[in-house]
Amino acid sequence: MISKESLLIHSSTLLVNATAEGKVLYCEEGLSFWGGVDPDTGVIIGAYHPNKGASLAGVLSQLY
What we know:
Elements: E1 24-27, E2 60-63
Parallel strand pairs: 1-2
């Protein structure tokens, strides 16, 4: 089943001229890799981050 969130369209700024396809993890807040993400699992562990518990492993991350 496709969730409503997966149907949303978000615009992005292209940083690398490449093609990518896959599941996207959309984050409305930035991520800190200095304690906000578990380096072994890729799980967001920031106590107050809206995506806490989501995994960055195997997904494209889009930061707002």
